[in-house]
Amino acid sequence: MDLQTRIRKIVEHIADGMHEREDIIAVALLGALSNQNTFLYGPPGTAKSLISRRIASAFKEPTYFECLMNRFSTPEELFGPVSIKELKEDRYIRKIDKYLPTAEFAFLDEIWKSSPAILNSLLTLINEGTYRNGTDIIKAPLKALIAASNETPEPNQGLEALYDRFIIRMMVGPIKRQSNFESLINSTAIDAKVNLPDNLVVKQSELESWPKELNTVLLSPETISVIHLIRKALDERFYELDVYVSDRRWQKAAQLLKASAFFNNRKQTNHSDILLLNHCLWTTKDNRETVIDIVYACISEIGFTSDISIAELDRGKDLLDKEINKELYHKKDVYKDILNIADKKCFKAVLNFTYDYDETAQRTIYIPFDMMKTADSFHPLDAHGNELEDFECTFDGQGTCSVEGHNFRNYYDATASYTPKVMFHKGDKKNEISTRLVESLRHSVIKTREELLSVLKQCSAKKEEYQSQLKSPFVTDNLLTIPLAGIDKQIEDIELRIKDCQRLEELCCE
Fold it and tell me: Is the dihedral of CA 370, 373, 379, 382 positive or negative?
């Protein structure tokens, strides 16, 4: 039986009868298998302690400790009573057998309600893996600690360091589906312990050997890209969300992703493992959903990495697009009858004005080119660049200029219109283009298109192989739509780039 199949069967056994808790059990089990601590957040009566007991059932003869904590809890409840016999010998020694210092698995309920002194001692035990009992330093066998509370630690209480040690954080809410709720209220009491078949039970020797093996698992380039993207997004919204992820937490989270890959029979992480980050980065109920949305958005943004840089191809294609349009096509309309008059670009307009009694007169005026885009009235120029105050021009916004002529000496007014003639419209191909230049540009476009086709082929082939590899007992099938949507979007974007290359190639051939 391979590891993935075995984990699935273990989860099925220990989640039996626990409605809508299968996903939580699977991730908490992964935490226990990879020596990571789990925090279960939710209201009372949502089976948080039962989850912990069931997970302990997956291991062969585990030493298990459980304690409900409150503000009156004493160190004796967690670490054992002081030995009266040793005290008489002037030695302060606790009887730690069957208490937290000797437990392999532990569950601490309402953890944040305990006193700072107890929590500080707990931090030392978790952080260093040791417990000082009198003058002796004892190696604690604790493999996984599950804590629970209906609240997160209050800020500025000195609990940040301890809270940071709980790499996995999961919401445990009331049952939502009506059918599951009816099954719950109609069922008898659920056993805390489950007897697993011998071939499923996790043995001590496996717990000792697995950490060495999962350390050989590599973080995929996609995983690293997503992590960088999430870090950037959280940093940009730090003042809004108040989420700080320590370097230690990132390292532990990366180990969790590697463990997920290992128990799915892989030597490298993939997108399904990255989805587990949604349990690792939030800090309070207020930022939980937003942080999870950030994680999912970053995962959907990253598809497959390729030996060929898409960004570099994009830059090259954009430069080709600009060069093709610059060298081969007119970027704007080119007009006839354009002259420079006194360093001004002007239209030469030869107009026939009709006066009173059908008298006509022909006048040549020069209309400044830069006035085409304005609706303001202006005076045209003569051949020397002087303004002709006897004439008033106005463009109508459609490219036609209305010209009014005035002659106060002879008491007459006249009108005429002028429409600039376009020699080449914007987008028309230029004449007399170098054949060598056109062929060079076309060859560059073909090369870019072939490289994009190579990336598309890689991504399409990888997707077919990848979909089966995404299956994981630690991630629900509906969550797998997130990375698949990102991969599909990547493939779609590459296809659009290829079509754009075909457009550029056609421009070079017209």
Answer: positive
How many C-beta atoms surround the C-beta of residue 261 within 10 A? 24
CA distance 461 to 467: 11
Residue 235 zone, left/alpha/beta (φ > 0; ψ -120 to 50; rest): alpha
Strand partners, 394: 402
Torsion 113-114-115-117 (CA) sign: negative
Q: Report the largest interatomic distance among the alpha carbons of the chain, rounded to a whole angstrom.
A: 136
Q: Identify the residue whose tokens are 């992590």.
A: 227
Nearest-CA neighbor of 105 among 145, 132, 137, 135? 145
Number of neighbours of residue 269 by Cβ within 10 angstroms: 26
Helix residue ranges, H only, 46-177: 48-56, 75-79, 84-88, 116-128, 160-164
CA dist., res. 171 & res. 21, Å (int): 10
Q: What residues contact residue 118 under an 8 Å CB cut-off, 6+ apart?
A: 69, 73, 74, 75, 78
Closest CA to 6 of 207, 263, 257, 261: 263
Q: What is the residue extent of each domain of the chain? A: 3-206, 215-302, 310-328+432-509, 347-424
Quote the pTM value: 0.75
Beta bridge partners of 381: 366, 387
How far is it, in rounded angstroms, from Cα 178 to Cα 312? 53
> Could you tell me the two tokens for 398?
């459609």
CA-to-CA distance for 41 and 282, rounded, in angstroms?
A: 12
What is d(CA 508, CA 510) in angstroms, rounded to the nearest whole number? 6
For the domain spanning 3-206, the CATH number is: 3.40.50.300
Phi-psi category of residue 160: left, alpha or beta, with phi > 0 → left and psi -120 to 50 → alpha? alpha
CB 4 within 8 A of CB 475: no
pLDDT tens series, the chain, 510 aa: 899 999 999 999 998 888 888 999 999 999 999 999 999 999 988 889 999 999 999 998 889 999 999 888 888 999 999 888 888 888 888 999 999 999 999 999 999 998 888 888 888 888 888 888 888 898 999 988 999 999 998 887 788 899 999 999 999 988 888 887 878 888 777 777 888 899 999 998 898 899 889 889 999 998 999 999 999 999 999 999 999 999 999 999 999 999 999 999 999 999 999 999 999 999 999 999 999 999 999 998 887 766 666 778 888 888 888 888 888 888 888 888 899 998 899 999 999 887 766 677 788 999 999 999 888 999 999 999 999 988 999 999 888 999 988 765 554 578 889 999 988 888 888 887 888 888 888 899 899 989 889 888 888 888 877 888 889 999 998 998 888 888 888 888 889 989 999 888 888 875
